[in-house]
Amino acid sequence: xxxxxxxxxxxxxxxxxxxxxxxxxxxxxxxxxxxxxxxxxxxxxxxxxxxxxxxxxxxxxxxxxxxxxxxxxxxxxxxxxxxxxxxxxxxxxxxxxxxxxxxxxxxxxxxxxxxxxxxxxxxxxxxxxxxxxxxxxxxxxxxxxxxxxxxxxxxxxxxxxxxxxxxxxxxxxxxxxxxxxxxxxxxxxxxxxxxxxxxxxxxxxxxxxxxxxxxxxxxxxxxxxxxxxxxxxxxxxxxxxxxxxxxxxxxxxxxxxxxxxxxxxxxxxxxxxxxxxxxxxxxxxxxxxxxxxxxxxxxxxxxxxxxxxxxxxxxxxxxxxxxxxxxxxxxxxxxxxxxxxxxxxxxxxxxxxxxxxxxxxxxxxx
Length: 366
Known about the structure:
It is built from 15 helices and 9 strands. The chain has helices at 5-8, 14-19, 48-71, 95-106, 127-137, 148-157, 172-186, 203-215, 229-242, 252-256, 274-284, 291-294, 317-320, 327-346, 348-354; strands at residues 84-89, 110-115, 140-144, 162-166, 193-199, 218-224, 245-248, 261-264, 302-305. The strands form 2 sheets. The chain has a 5-stranded parallel sheet with strand order 7-6-5-8-9. The chain has a 4-stranded parallel sheet with strand order 2-1-3-4, sandwiched between helices. Helix 4 links the parallel strand 1 and strand 2 (110-115). Helix 3 (48-71) crosses helix 7 (172-186) and helix 4 crosses helix 14. The termini are far apart.
């Protein structure tokens, strides 16, 4: 049989058949190209210029979708045409799954959902074998898992980008959506003050800390929990160039003074036992964001929660449903920020062509 059967039979591909082109036969098959890729496991894997470029592209993508329903045209609709993203899920998801599937569709590619809850990584098949197989079939992998070990092991053997869609050590996709929201509302992604209240020993807190140190803003923390020493070490290294700062306060009232952004996360993360919920609520209640606490922040302070939110727990209903809340803008921006991130990691050459889309909005607050 010929080494180039496809080239011998034009009707095997629509491109050749419709154009009457004969494929050039070669003496030997071309060597398989080596792939170099970048993984995103925490916000520490990105540089500040990379984040700014992702913000610029995300804003342009969001603007393009706004006119799509009227014009039927989206300038980015073929950016990832032919690309496949495998989305691995061990933990439940709403915003992550929907935003990834819709995002890949809007970019011209596809997202393939795979639940690893019933078929854990490394059990039936080694992670090394899984990574090698997926690297030959897809252009990228996202993993929403219980443990950092799973996503790190997968990244160590994959030759395509692996993106942490949440583990116990970070949540970088959420951070990019948060920054995009702050850019839209404040006109900057540096030089402001943020206060975070609640569980200090979790993935969101850890990546908020990294993001502050990387981008150059101040993060005040008040809550319960022990932050891992390695996270502090990472933040120290990131702040050398980023010039950001993280500080822990004993009370919410001390931490909130004059801040531009207030941020909360659920007190009841997935996996918390029912019999622990009352104890956790009692423990975190001193850090609940209510109208009195919000009044101590800057007058134009915005309120953020990465959702899901429980009214009456991490914040009161009047705060999350009030005029300073941007939680649903924040949720929508998961879609736009992740689209820009996916192009950045899966198709870096194409992304480089897109960064001319324009500058960030002018800063509205000094």
